[in-house]
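Dear colleagues,

As part of the handover before I leave the project, I'm documenting each prediction I ran so the next person doesn't have to rerun anything. This entry is a single chain, and its sequence is reproduced below.
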Amino acid sequence: MKRTLLAILVALALLVTACSAPEVPAPPSGVPTPRPRGTDTPTPASDEEAIWQLLNAEAEGVVSQDIDRLMEIWHEDGVVTDANHTPDNPSDDRVWSGIAAIRERYVNEIFPSAPSSVTHPDAEVTIEGNTATAFSTSTIGIDHAPGGDLWAFAKSDGRWLIVSLTFNLEAQ
């Protein structure tokens, strides 16, 4: 009798606990769920492949407007610079410094144009130890910038991140 009563009490306690656990609501439709940093990036076979994965992830993040994914691939102290088609004249550059400013650039300046495609078809990647650069052509929607982008990357704790992008380097 004591065992039966104890079993019933344990079952009731489990039922009460299960019923009283707070239900976590699903995010509203269209709102991405946050992911821990770097959890869905495939492991590259080489450093050059890692750089290409970052370029492609950035392009895919822009098209899908996945700000969480974009923030995963940028270094927290990253810098984006619009060279304004005058690479020898930094006085007319526009600069976004730090991850918060880069986030604002994506959300307020890139996403509203809703590009249907972004590619970096002919990047020239150079790797020197734990740093790398890529000089690339970019095509965003119908806009084509031949050889107008310079990317910089750094490897820390075995993981590559984007540390800078300078665009609009080609003269008009």
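Confidence is low (pLDDT under 50) at residues 1-39. The domain at 44-167 is CATH 3.10.450.50 (Nuclear Transport Factor 2; Chain: A,).

All the best with the project,
I.
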